[in-house]
Write a structure and sequence with these properties.
Blueprint (H helix, E strand, L loop, with lengths): L1 E3 L2 E4 L4 E4 L2 E3 L3 H12 L5 E2 H8 L7 H15 L9 E4 L3 E4 L4 E2 L20 H12 L7 E6 L6 H15 L3 E6 L11 H10 L5 H11 L1 H8 L10 H18 L2 E6 L6 H12 L6 E7 L6 H15 L4 E4 L5 H12 L8 H9 L3 H13 L3 E6 L2 E6 L12 H12 L3 H10 L5 E3 H8 L3 H14 L3 E8 L5 E7 L2 H9 L3 H18 L8 H10 L3 H17 L3 H15 L4 H21 L2 H17 L1
Parallel strand pairs: 9-12, 9-13, 10-11, 11-12
Antiparallel strand pairs: 1-2, 1-8, 2-3, 3-4, 5-7, 6-7, 14-15, 16-18, 17-18
Length: 611
Amino acid sequence: MKQFESFRLDTADECLWHDGVQIALPPKQFALLRYLVEHSGRLISHDELLDALWPETYVQPQVLRTYVLELRKILGDDARQPRFIQSLPKRGYRFVAPVTDSPATPSAVEHPAEFAGIAGRDEELGILRTHFDRLAQQQRQIVFICGEVGIGKTALVEAFCRELEQTSDVTIVRGQCVQGFAEREEYYPVMEMLAELCAPPHAEQARPILARRAPAWQVALDRDMQAQKMPSEERALGDLCAFLEGMSVEKPLLLVFEDLHWADDSTLQVLAALARRRIPARLMVVATQGPTQQGDTSQALKKLKHDLLLHGLGTEIALAPLQMPQVRELLQRELHQQDLPQDLAVSVYEASEGNPLFAMAILGHLKTHRFLVCREAGGSARWEQRVPFREMEAGLPDELVQMVELEIERLTPVEQHLLEAGSLFSVAFPAWAVAAAMDDDVAQTEEMCDELARRLHFIKRAGQDELPDGTCSAFYVFAHGLYREVLHNRQAVARRSRSHLRIAEKLRVSFAGCELHVAREMAWHYEVAGQRLLAIATLRDAARNAFANNRQATGTDLLEHALRIAQDLHQTERDAVASEILIDLMQSKAAGSDASQDRATENLDNFSTRS
């Protein structure tokens, strides 16, 4: 047992503990953390890590960056001020926390019942249990667990596996699909599973069955060859299925495929063969699947899953974001504290929008920046807030920004610019406005938006927007505000201003004759573009139109809005412009109702006081 701060790395059972609570770690993340911890204090180069974790297999260094990012999220580490993993650019990583050997193992006292399991996924766990129970009748089961990045797919699987290990006699093996491997190494997760089955404690049972039922796979495994070199792929698949079915005779066998959206075609063929074979077997496959990527493999997975679900050969569990009570439960488990600081749950829920990974990253961010501190009180530790959460500006957690940046960087420059243009809107963005921001064709822009909405999990088509000239344009939304904010912040101020100005001008042209309907929207774009005088002129013109149509209250609202913008002008302009707006308000006062006159008088008094 290796201990660093409040974490314990159990190298025997291959798990991580934090304050007595077990944390789900996929095999490769665990292997990476173990290597860093066991070689703490010294620089470990990228090449050394790649050789240690992927011997005789070419892996891009980018994979390491992804895994380190995941570990930082789990450990609550900050890349700028690392407590655990220090990055040395272009060189490697160093584990900087002091590490000690601890003979103790987490006990039941350290793992209270109220913090056991996983927050907010009781229904999904029940579905998995039901499918596992069907293995008693030798009915093989295929379950897909789907959802967006960070929604808790792996955490759900790990909770299910922990429960089975405590309550059932079952063999569990895992295979991790890795991004970028599909075109270079076939059967990668399958070979990982075979290696695990043929190693202690399963080797004594598995190796004789493998030698008897799938000798070609045994040769491939022992020689570290790629299974694609076998003479007959069809025979190889049948032999592999026979071996896995043989492993399920003595006790149930659970195969876990992580990140199936990155699987190669050969691995998908293995899954298809396992699902379609009619031989009774106590065999269950659980596959996690994130948002599908562009490419042939993605289409193959989509087709396979659709076919299996259509013919009743598989089940899909789609994970939705957590609701407010579930986020509260998640925080209670993480902090080991039933009564949370005021507004913590609400603030984290609103910022994360129910995404568990985002919620944990935000909580770690609050701890790192000491908005949330642990104090001793009455002989026990309690988490307290230093400032009201509603009043703080904590920014975005670096690890989440990096995660989103990695997703964005996989897109083409044109696609990145399109999404950045969409981020200029607070909620939904219409294709025609994005085209205006990019000075591009509307039809072509809409086609690109539709294509991105099909490919990316964080963009969704939400409806159609109709312009006064009768033309229609689809509009879209970001599935999570985090993506919009990161995309917005990526742009230089000058480019954002230019885009907002183009959108405002497009609104003016498209809504000519009925500007009153979009006056506030136009003014907002002008204002954030730094063109406050144009924003004020737009609002004053709309106010005159409102007064001409006997809409006194609307006109007064628009002028009050203009007056607020005028306060941000330079003093040399502010007084002159504000005086003109006040004259408009006085005229509206003379022509308006008693309520309008009272509001105009109040505005006059307020401005006089400020002046």
